[in-house]
Amino acid sequence: MRPGVMDRFDGLADRFLADIEPLKAAGTLVVGLYCTYAPVELVRAAGAVPVGLCGKKQEPIAAAERTLPASLCPLIKSSYGYAVTDTCPYFSASDLLVGETTCDGKKKMYEFLGRIKPLHLMQLPAMVGPAQDAYWLGEVRRFKEFLEERSGRTITDAALAEEIAVQNEVRRLLHKVLATSRAAAVPLSGLDAMLVTEARSFTADPNAYAAVLRELLAELEAMAASGASFAPAEARRILLTGCPVGRGSDKLVRLVEQCGGVVVASENCSGVKGFDGLVDETGDPLEAIARRYLRIPCSVMTPNAGRLALLDELVQAMRPQGVIDLTWQFCHTYNVESPIVADHLRHQHGLPTLHLETNYADADTEQLRTRVEAFLEML
Ligand code: SF4
Ligand code: SF4
Fold this sequence. Notes:
The chain has 379 residues and is α/β, with parallel strands linked by helices. The chain has 16 helices and 8 strands.
């Protein structure tokens, strides 16, 4: 049984372009974002509309490979392919792009993207510490100045505080939605949970998104109270970690749920990593934003203890029986980190991990199905 409110999330994403049309006509900037490190509060406080642009489909990859090496992760190639073929309406609608120096492939791809549209690159440090906090605050301040110059609007502390409160409310609601899958009955499938978080990047008005989240939460809580579940009681509970997934790059989530498992949580950027951690609402808003965003535990950080800590929390809260660690082909940081994650989960929690490396194409789907089926049977 699927929550009826789920249709509204599809509607939100579909409506985005219609919603921004009058805003664009009135001079509102649309800012395309590629990564979870981009502070949306700043974009909104500048009166601009942020939109997520990460490439999640196979189709534009061939066009990207005319310029980029084939040996890059599909997410990078798909992002660039959409841009160079101008086939993503969200990219077309964007006036400006924001990138961060995360993995090597992505930061070098931004040099090409910057030839297509104005791109602001935030120089992300590779670890968390007092010196990095001070440095990243400078980068956040530089981003603020860039937005002020482009929008012609001063970003005030009051505007920032307002946007922080709205985004924190969205983060709290997403955590509550996740918590409805803690019990044995799981009212929301992993695939639908992915659509819920993804819709956040395609909503012109975050308050409207929060309102639909509240409706979803009410329906999920009612379902949970009546024991309604997406999956039968014997379905194996899976925690997904690793590279981000989304509509178009969701084959592994589909496979797990087709094979009788249920993804009870996704630790990746398209899941909990994208909404975990509130921005402190006391003190200087810019410092609070810088502090929260630098603590996103992406594998580009070294060391990346934050990812293990987040996995610990999710294991305790969501009680998975197994973990699937997804690496997109040629994503070196997640690939190298995978044995660290598997060792940690085995030693700290006695949990088995299945590490899968794949791309956006369908060629290996049946091979993956066999491995997922075998893993679920083993649990
Ligand atoms: S996995 Fe890392 S680089 Fe990719 S979107 Fe998330 S934070 Fe950004
Ligand atoms: S999946 Fe890996 S290689 Fe691809 S953009 Fe993200 S961090 Fe970079």
